Amino acid sequence: MERKITAESLFVDRPPSAALVRRGMRDLEGELVGQFRESQSESRVLSKASGAVARSVAGGNSSALAASMRAIRVSDQRLGRRKLAPVEGPRETERIFSGSIAATRVPPYSYPWTWSSQNGGASVSVTANQNTGRMGFGLWNAGRAASGSAAAAIGIYFRPVFANGILRLWSNPAFNYQWWTYCVLASAHSDGWIGLYVGRYTLAGGFDGAPVNQRVRLWNDDSWWSGAGSHSGSTSGFPLFAQLGVDSAHWYALWVWCGGRATGDGWGGLFSGSGAGSNLSVLVPSMTWELF
Length: 292
What we know:
This protein is of the alpha+beta class. It has one domain (15-291). It contains three helices and 16 strands. Strands 3, 6, 9, 10, 11 and 14 form a six-stranded antiparallel sheet that branches. The protein has a five-stranded antiparallel sheet with strand order 1-2-16-7-13, with no helix packed on it. Strand 1 and strand 2 form a beta hairpin. The two termini are 32 Å apart.
């Protein structure tokens, strides 16, 4: 019987465990927590300034302002309860290239990873499934003064067969997205991104840095007065590419990842309030690496 040659069979060693790879991602998680806390501080400053403006203008036009707030709040609540449909994309075939050593990996991948943080009771969901190649997140301040942030990744194992080399990594994930900011004299924020991340490890399993930490902005909105409204879209293939130097004294975790944040002041005020959401559903049909 003919033996099938797979991309993973190019390596003489077995891929390290998912638990070991997740330990290496703790540095990244610490970085994300720091960024989330910094964004919270910025949001508090903006909310305080917006509230001062609201108090100064509410007296002369209170009925119209209250009616406007009710209409915008309804849109925020409706969008916050809606879930994105799973994204569809092309079916890829795993293959090995001749010439320079290269391979295309398809699901199932080696590793999943997720991270999230929130305060104020924000609605946060995040998933990553290495067997299907699907990942994504849903964030909404849920009508409260709240903020949520999330990131998800799907990765594969790689170790060079040469002492030194240049590695090229690319993928064309498909995704659906929906985001919104609604506000009346209050601040709201929504953002989302996608990219490639490469973790480098010593042969003993210690994390040794991230030579690739790529985040391509898909949307990024800060609003204070009325908001940007609701926006949605999709793509069947979004090109991601990175290049880095590698060596056989290390092994590497190669990831496609995504993330975002949503922050709003809620709708508890009489004449001011805001809501925001960030939703992204991603399908990674393949990941290709080429070693020179």
